[in-house]
Every structure is written in C-alpha cells, then in structure tokens.
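Practice problem: predict the structure.
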Amino acid sequence: MLEKVPKHLMSLVIDQPYHNYTAQDHALWRYVMRQNVRYLSKVAHESYLDGLKRTGISLERIPEMYGMNRILREIGWAAVAVDGFIPPSAFMEFQAYNVLVIAADIRPINQIGYTSAPDIIHEAAGHAPIIANSSYAAYLKRFGEIGAKAFSSASDYKMYEAIRHLSILKADPYSVRGLILEAEKGIDVLEKNIGEPSELSQIRNLHWWTVEYGLIGNPDHPKIYGAGLLSSIAESYYCMQPKVKKIPYTIDAVNYSFDITEPQPRLFVTPDFDTLTNVLEEYANTMAFRTGGLQGIRKAIRSEATATCIYSSGLQVSGTFFEVLDRKGEPVFIKTIGPTNLNFCGKELPGQDKSYHQHGFSSPVGMIRKLPVPPEDATDDQLKELGLIDHERVEFEFVSGLKVSGVLKEKIRKHGKLIILRFAECEVSYQGKILYQPSWGLYDMAVGSRIVSCYSGPADPVAFGLNFTPPTEKTHKLQHTEKATHLFTLYQKVRDARENMDTQTLPEIWKEIRTHHPDDWLCALEILEILNSRKKDPLYKEIKHFLDCRKSENDSLRKLIEDGYLVYEID
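Answer:
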C-alpha cells in the first residue's frame, strides 16, 4: 500500500522511535488494552474485537509499525508513523490512500484515561481494529477523498498550529502548567475570531462526530465505533452515561464544533455505517469541488493557498487564486498570483508549467457573443464564422461584455474539447479596464463557459511540486529525570519476572517502589497480578493494602485501580 502514497505525503512520515518507549509505556499499553478487551466487549460495535484479532495488535506491548503493516495489508490498509498532529488536508489524503496515520508517541501515565494529543493508543488501538469492517473502511477512504478537496482558510491553519502546540505541551509530563494555560487561552482567542466556517472546519466536525467520537445503533442503547472513544478508557465509560446527550446523526452535525480538551457533552448516533456515507455525500454536494461557480472561486481565494479551478472544457488551473470579476452572480474573469500551471485530467499540459506562468495566470470565463454553443464545444467552422481564423487578427466579445482582440496563433483541444486559445499582440478589457495588454507577450486564454469545480491543492501534485513541510515545532523528546529512569528500570524488572515466571525478585522491587516511588500504582498492580495465585503471601497482602489505600485517598485513581483489579482478575 505504501508504494502508492505520493512523495509529497511521505515527507511527513518518520521512523517509529520504538527504542524510546519505556517499560512503563509498555505497561500502560498493556493496562489499556486489557481494559479495552474487558469493557469494550460490552459497549463497542461488534467489529471492534473481531478487528483487534484480525489486525494482530498485541495486548502485551506497543506494536511495531512493520508488524502492523504486514497484517493490515491483508485488509487493504497500511500505517505510517508521524510526529503528532499533521495538517488536516494531509491527514485526509493519507486516508484516501488507505493509510492510517499513527502518532508515534504514547500518552503519559497521568493521562492514561484520556489525552487530547494523538498517540499510538488512539491510532493503533482505536482506529486500526474498526477498519477491519469493510463498510466502515469504505467510508473512511471516501471521507479522505472528499476531505482532501475541502477548502481551508488562513485562520484554520493558525488553529491547527495552536492545537498542535497545546497537544505537544500536554503530552509532555514535564511541561510547565503556565505554558499550557497560555496555549489554551490562545486557542480561545482564535475560536472567537475564526470568522465564517470553512469547508475544512465543517468536514472536520463530521470527522470528529463519526470517525473519532461516533456511536452506532439505537440512541437509547448505542455502541461505540469512534476511535477517540475506543482508545479512551475514561471517555468510553463516560459517554455511555445518561448525562451525555445522544443525537441521531444527520448533516446538521457539521454545525457542532468540539473541544478536544474536555469530555464531549453530546454525541451523534448513526443507525448504520451506510448512513455515514450518505451524510458525507450530502455534505459533499454543497462543497466547491461539486458546485464550482463564483462561490467556489471565492472559497479558493479565501483559502490563500494553492487551489484548482476547472473550466467546463476540462482545463484545470492550479495556483493561488487572487481575484475574480463577476456579473450577475457569474464569474467573468479569474486571476492567480505567483506560480501557476495548466492541466488536463490531472496531468500538466506541455509548456504550461509554473516557470511559464511564474507570475500568475488570468483568463475569461463564460459564453462568447454570437457563438451558438459553449466555446469549449465550438467546431473550427463555428469559430471561423465568428472570425476566429488561425494567424489572423480577431476581435470578439463575451456575453459578459469582456472583450478580446489579438492574432490567433493556436487552438488546443483535448478529448474533443477546445481548452486553450493562444494569442499574440493580445488585449483583454472589461468595463474600460485593461486586464491584459500586448506588451506582456503571448496570451493563453482558457476556454470554458463555466467553472464547474474548485478544490484545494494542485491538479497534478508531482508536476506542481507539492510538498507538505514537516511542522517546525516537534513533539518533545522527553528528557526523563534520574528518578523516572529508575522507575522505568523497576517496570522492566517486573515484566522480566512475569515473562520468566520468577517471583524471587519481587520483594526487592517492591521495596524500591515503596522507598523511592510511593505515588506509583501501575507497577504495584503488575506485581500484584504476578502474585495473584498466592493471596496468602504477606507481599500480596501488603501491596493489596497499599492499592486499596491509594484508591480511597485519591478519587482520580479509584476507578483506575478498581478496573485494574478486574483486568488482572484480582479479588
């Protein structure tokens, strides 16, 4: 699968830093996965546990990307490691290529129940198992195909960077609290000044309420399928409580924003996976890539990024759209700024690359006066009747009133459609304003009566040189304290004892935990699991008493420890 992923996406892929995972990280994974199997068997969609088996994800240790890909290939998917949040458009495009994007980090133990940052538990244990369901996988792929075409806005990218920054801080257990509060305030300011919602912001809402936080079935007794819920042992429990409102899923979900730092007060319930696709297509019908026209061009302009507008002739103009002139709600003339190329059927046309149009491109749109058919459908005879004869000076006017004069040098057709008229000594004017003048050189005029589609990104990414630059701010490579490193060593000793069925080292390990790490509970729980068959052992009783005290003294630990007893079958 990965060989099909375009080069511009692969620049975001990193090597999974497997050697950086600590023994505590693996213990955390083990706890969460066992909790998922125990609890989600009751509340998750039936595809989840089946998918967990089919994808071969280990319950014992964090999976390696190579092993996951070997198994995912059997269900037509692949996975890549990335550094935290990546740009939403890139995320969608990966999805369109049947590739799961997996944030390589794992949440710190103080966020074991829920984390706002993407991590390997969320991706590998949340997303991967459910895609084994073919109907859901088809929806996910289709979402990627449509989402990759959605227009964003300049404020969307600022929001993405702000959310990424906050998630990086929150994923670092050593982050200063003041920096986190400052980052949260920054997001609040952006949210209050976000302006008109873009296509991307709305389709991200659909993604959140389905792929991340979706419920399925009957609103009175729903099941979980969203990865954000499947990977959160805290919210998978919370979401089933009556206080969380369950709303039938419709296109209205695009209007509901979300806060990634808080449990969701409402969730949407789809009756089945087919409904997800139906709603997605319903929203897609409102998007510029299907509607085109003046509004589509304006969305391209607002995005302030590379976009493509397609003429009714099939000609694709890719660049940064800067201006549109209109009359009675219809575009008359479009203009890009900076490097632009012209394409047909997703391939750059010879001689129409960014170096040729390095300063931008402009062209009329619309019907030509006295031409009985749309200009893209005009035959050579019809053009002659209009006076458009090769190598002769011509003058003609669009229905909009836009005027063109010059020497016709060449007509370019593709698939029977006229797509470009090339002029020398050309002047283009509209309402007394000169839009193109002879001294600027040859003029390649796009041909088409309408703009039928507008979407984000270039038509030919390779020829255009599209590249997603990796985010400047990287997730933090944790610099653990000497005390933390010592604790991780103890976790490893407990794992070794369990795997080697050796209990002789446990008293000394426990002594070090009690002496140097009295706040740790998970390592104590793992020791208790090993001693579970020896309930009369004084060490078992001591550790059990310690954990019982911890859960009675600390409300935030009560459910974690009680669930741990159930997971490890401790009475």
